[in-house]
Amino acid sequence: MKIVTVIGARPQFIKAAVVSRLLKKQSGVEELLVHTGQHYDDNMSEVFFRELEIPAPAFHLGIGSGPHGQQTGRMLEAIEKVLVETKPDRVLVYGDTNSTLAGALAAVKLHIPIAHVEAGLRSFNRRMPEEINRIVTDHVSEWLFAPTDAAAANLRAEGRPEEAIHLVGDVMYDAAIDAGRRTGNEILEKLKLKPKSYLLTTIHRAENTDDPVRLHNILKAFHALNKEWQVVLPLHPRTRALLQKSPALANLAECLRVLEPVGYLDMVALEKNARLIATDSGGVQKEAFFQRVPCVTLRDETEWVELVELGWNRVVPPSSVAGILAAVKEALHDSQAKTPPSDLYGGGKAGAAIVSVLASANKPG
Ligand code: UD1
Ligand code: UDP
């Protein structure tokens, strides 16, 4: 069986590393990786291939950045050519980026069955590009690998067939367990950071970076928090580009510990030793919980609702500086988080569950 996997953005490399490693061990399965080139800086792409020993992509499409229509359209054209040439039995896509959407659209038009890892997540906010990408992908995929009960319920509510829905858990939990075993504290030593003396932050979502008021509020809050804590900010290139254009934003960030994006093993070490994490990342809010570090999510909503229900995460819209500071204060001082069920996020076996379904010969339905 031939599987073509389409990936292109940072979190997809981390997720695919888990499944690709297991697919490699599966007899009778050949996986070809297609890298769309959506992310291309060494520290947004290659570093993950090196650290996580991901096989070199069979095809690198080199698409790069651009407006949504152009970026997705270029990917679609290039992926179609790869699929026509390689004739896979299945196409595997991850998450909710433009690379996910392009991979799914190219495959469904060629009648190639699609497997979607991280199916069913919903913010119910259609202004998010990711929400559109997820909905479309889930409605053209044949295997829907849901990471949580809530995600599986969303798929049922949208009428996706029961036999297509596989509640397998979250491959990012598998990835975090593996990284936790392999990472040391070198990054803390290099940055002269003491465990639990700093707040770890990340910002990259379009809804925050493309809204000058929200981005200003976030940086102003980080600036204020930095008086008591060190605020460490590995900066996504999207956000760095905006800071470079605005002296007011750059001034606010000047006192923070701004870093280039770090590799995954260093990121896990920074997460594990942080006193608190404030982020708008989907992946990082879960990783905070995996390391049992309190988290404040700087968004209007989250797809990972179970962490909010259990008290491990607080969602605060960055519409006011005071609101962000209050949420951080609360998260720092409130230790009322509930013990999670042991199988939340699949107990580290999501990758194995996905491979077992994928490798079985039959199509659903
Ligand atoms: C994308 C995903 C988002 C995901 C994020 C993970 C979409 C619509 N968005 O957002 O869901 O959370 O990846 O990080 O697919 N850039 C560089 N170097 C790079 C990559 C990007 O400089 O290697 C800069 C460019 O200025 C580019 C901007 O970042 O225009 C945005 O990149 P893009 O891939 O379009 O979106 P992300 O914000 O990374
Ligand atoms: N990450 C990383 N280095 C960084 C920032 C994030 O390795 O400097 C990892 C992080 O640990 C998580 C993933 O990238 O596994 C999340 O990616 P991102 O926040 O870019 O995207 P999202 O999850 O929001 O789609």
Number of discrete helical segments? 17
Bound molecules: uridine-diphosphate-N-acetylglucosamine, uridine-5'-diphosphate
**Beta-strand percentage?**
5-15%
Query: Which class do the helix and strand fractions yield?
Result: alpha/beta
The string of secondary-structure elements, in order, is EHEHEHEHEHEHEHHEHHEHHEHEHEHEHH
The oligomerization state is single chain
Overall geometric form: globular
State the strand order across the main sheet: 3-2-1-4-5-6-7
Walk me through this protein's architecture.
The protein is α/β, with parallel strands linked by helices and 365 residues long. Helix 6 links the parallel strand 6 and strand 7 (165-167). It is globular and about 55 Å long. It contains 17 helices and 13 strands. The protein has helices spanning 10-25, 46-51, 68-86, 98-109, 129-140, 149-157, 171-182, 186-191, 206-209, 212-225, 237-245, 247-253, 264-272, 282-290, 305-309, 321-333, 350-359; strands spanning 2-7, 30-35, 59-60, 90-94, 114-117, 143-146, 165-167, 198-202, 230-234, 257-259, 276-279, 295-297, 313-315. The structure holds uridine-diphosphate-N-acetylglucosamine and uridine-5'-diphosphate. Uridine-diphosphate-N-acetylglucosamine binds next to helix 1, helix 5 and helix 11.
Topology:
Elements: E1 2-7, H1 10-25, E2 30-35, H2 46-51, E3 59-60, H3 68-86, E4 90-94, H4 98-109, E5 114-117, H5 129-140, E6 143-146, H6 149-157, E7 165-167, H7 171-182, H8 186-191, E8 198-202, H9 206-209, H10 212-225, E9 230-234, H11 237-245, H12 247-253, E10 257-259, H13 264-272, E11 276-279, H14 282-290, E12 295-297, H15 305-309, E13 313-315, H16 321-333, H17 350-359
Parallel strand pairs: 1-2, 1-4, 2-3, 4-5, 5-6, 6-7, 8-9, 8-11, 9-10, 11-12, 12-13
Helix pairs in contact: 1-7, 1-17, 3-4, 4-5, 7-13, 7-14, 10-12, 10-16, 11-12
The chain binds uridine-diphosphate-N-acetylglucosamine and uridine-5'-diphosphate (UDP).
